[in-house]
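seq as requested:
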Amino acid sequence: MSEEITNSANDHLSNFIKNNEHKPEQPIITNIEQFGSNIKQKVEYIETKADSLWIDVPLEELPYGKFYPIGTHIFIRPATTQEIEAFAVVNDKNPFDVQLKLNEILSACTKISFIDGSYGTYKDIQSGDRDTLSIVIAKATAKNGNKIQKKVICDCDVTKEGINVEMIPANYIYKTESEDVAPWFNKDKRVYEFELENGIKIALAPPSIGLTESINEYVFYKSAQSEGKIMPNLTFMQCIPYIKAGLGIKSLSIEQLEQEEYAFKKMNEELFMFIYDAIDLMGFGVEELKTKCTKCRKELKTPFSFPGGARALFVVPNAFKKFIRQRV
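struct tokens:
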């Protein structure tokens, strides 16, 4: 069996979506989560109606899946025409606009449930999973078997036609967790709990979308307040999301962030240097896409990014030529 076939068979998320593309009826979802070696606890089930299109996304397929509380379920559904129309005006050249429009898609097309029976919103999603989940939603939305894929060209390809690589987990190359931080991960709390030689303890974790939104709002507020004359404290912006996420905080007000920035400036020097370095070691996400040349069998890689820009996720490029009836 070829490596491509093996990868495809192991791509649970892709197979799950394909199996459900023409099956609107979803069963009652029940899950068992493992706690330790002997204890099992049942997750409250979510009963979906017969006409439901919600799909339970396996957390192990998400780059930041290990940071969600035990028993968390993320459901996605295809985007509607109205939601696609709203997304179509996205400015691909403006990262903040892309982030805003993707958040709107996630807000409409995701549901989150927790082990205690409560529900969350898109703001509870890990900020680092925004792009991956957006691609999953785009894949579920695609009509007529359309695929989300990028083109990569091999050195042996004199025609430069390239090979299309589908954006599915089987083709992802994930960033590797540093061996230095791995032993400090608390599997129950889903955060890193570090203890320094001087006795200081600090918990760190990647931020949620809600916390990232709070930081962005604070940046805009500070910039407007100074009329663009004072640059935001970039070091603070980089560190504070991980510090607060480590405490389980998912959003902060502008007033709270002002207080946090004041306290940050008075932080112990050793603690600051440790946090700054630890964040660099906490590398997650999808780094590249991989495939093999169909001719020379060389492994090919290409950076992970939206093919054709974010707009192309939900709006078919060159739709006029693609859908117009050809005259004979």
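Residues 40 and 185 are 21 Å apart (CA to CA).
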